[in-house]
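Kindly inspect this one:
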Amino acid sequence: MRNILILIMFAASLADAAWNDYEEVRELALDAGAVAALHIEAGAGSLEITGVSDTDRIRVAALIRVPGADADKAKEALDEHMVLSLLRKGDDAELKSYFDGGGRMFSDSPSIGLEVQLPEGMSLHIEDSSGSVKISEVQGTVDYDD
């Protein structure tokens, strides 16, 4: 009987851990007035890029997911290991989105899903390590390394 109770408690704790995924959305934006190209360096997570005809801004919505982590542990990992930035570099813009080795502390890897909107004529240079990629309505040159 004691073994059955221990087994039930263990199963319940596993189920609870599976439901305790931390999720957060962050938004980034950058004036794209004279930006010729967007360089994206993305780690684990989906990437959806859409060209927009009447905009002069790059907009990013990032869905950050840390599986099996409570809010305190997840926020600590984000502060210490997450890279998420959108910056202008000369005539180009640079979007970085990944975890730098901090995912090893979790049972499943954290990820950052990105939804990017940019002027439709802007060129793209993408380095993506993991996850699905969808590119639509982009009329500029697309260079993609997966």
About this structure: The mean pLDDT is 86. The two ends are 53 Å apart (CA to CA). The first strand starts at residue 22 and ends at 31.
